[in-house]
Amino acid sequence: MDMIDNYRSLPIGRYLDICREGARQDIDAVERQARVIAILTGRHPEDILNLPIAEYRELSERSAFLSAEPEHVGGRAAQVYRVGGWELVPVADARRITVAQYVDFQTFCTKPEHIVELLSVLMVPRGCAYNQGYDVAEVQAAIREGMSVEEVLRVSAFFLRRFAGLIQDSLSFSERAAERMPEPARTETRERLMKVRAMWRRLTGNGDGSPTSTRSAGRAGAAGRRSGR
């Protein structure tokens, strides 16, 4: 059975789906693992649960890469990314972003689960002004389906370096706003901001972390391997 078994080939959209499935608490470990494998294979979870045990174990072992953090996130961003028929140009200079871009940037940069939306703010179709002359939803769909986890990490690291001041300002603003929130929103926001700071440390080489919850996906993989179904 065809299956994605590395971050270089894993589209960021599928990775985010895997993280959501891996974090679910309303299903047992075997079903979580089956859902992760279904995403990696493009099959329905029921198809995976109905496989012979030997084939299921083989697929589970091939999903083990999710237990490790992605590697090779260094290097430069490309000048243009060709995804889904679009030519997306990364914004290299924070001084050139518009007010509308900055507002959307602030909205998404403190929410790791919205990395695709953030990239759609900072990667604009060639020849277009931000959110003018194109459908941003189509660009986001192209990023989800056409950019791998490794590509997204590389371009994210690029933006972290180039937009350091804006990100720090957004984090500080969000942390102040969190203090005025009632529970449980305050705790949830603090936890999300901790993830963003972890992402910052990881992508800038100052510590561990991830752009989304790789640990959730990794736990799902580990649980599936222990199950031996």
Provide a short characterization of the protein structure.
The chain is mainly α and 229 residues long. Helices cover 58% and strands 5% of the residues.
Itemize the secondary structure elements and their pairings.
Blueprint (H helix, E strand, L loop, with lengths): L11 H11 L6 H13 L3 H5 L3 H10 L18 E3 L2 E5 L8 H11 L5 H8 E3 L10 H11 L2 H14 L1 H16 L5 H19 L10 H14 L2
Annotation, overall tally of beta strands = 3
Question: Distance N terminus to C terminus?
Answer: 18 Å
Main β-sheet, spatial strand arrangement: 1-2-3
Main β-sheet description = 3 strands, antiparallel
Strand content: under 5%
* Spatial shape: globular
Contiguous runs where pLDDT drops below 50 for at least 5 residues:
206-216, 218-229
Helix content: 55-70%
Count of helix runs: 11
> SSE order, as H and E?
HHHHEEHHEHHHHH
Class inferred from helices and paired strands: mainly alpha
Q: What integer is the average pLDDT?
A: 82
Rounded Rg: 19 Å
What are the main properties of this structure?
5% strand; mainly alpha; 229 residues; three-stranded antiparallel β-sheet; disordered C terminus
Task: Walk me through what this model shows.
The structure is a single chain. With 229 residues, the chain is mostly helical. 58% of the residues lie in helices and 5% in strands. The protein has helices spanning 12-22, 29-41, 45-49, 53-62, 99-109, 115-122, 136-146, 149-162, 164-179, 185-203, 214-227; strands spanning 81-83, 86-90, 123-125. Strand 1 (81-83) and strand 2 form a beta hairpin. The radius of gyration is 19 Å and the shape is globular. 35% of the residues are buried.
